[in-house]
Amino acid sequence: MPWQDNIRVDQGDITSYQGLADALLSVNYIALNTGDSSRFAARNTLMLGVGVKLPTGKFSADRPASIQIGTGTWDYNFNIIYTLRYKKWGLNAAVTNN
Question: pTM of the full predicted structure?
Answer without folding.
Answer: 0.68
